[in-house]
Amino acid sequence: AVGRWLAELHAADDRPAAAAPATLWRRRPATLADQAFLARARAALAEIARGEFDKLVLTRSVHFASELPIAAASVLGVLARRHAECTIYGVGQPGQSFFGATPERLVSLRAGTVRADALAGTAWLSAAAGQPTSRALQADKNRREHQLVVDAVRAALLPLCVSQEPPQAASIMHLGQLQHLRTTVVGRARAGVGLFDLIASLHPTPAVGGVPGPAARQWLCRHGDRRGAWYTGGVGWIDRDGNGDVVVALRCARLRGRAAELFAGAGIVAGSDPEQEFAETEVKLGVIAAALRCPRAGAPGQARRTGTG
Question: Global pTM?
Answer without folding.
Answer: 0.84
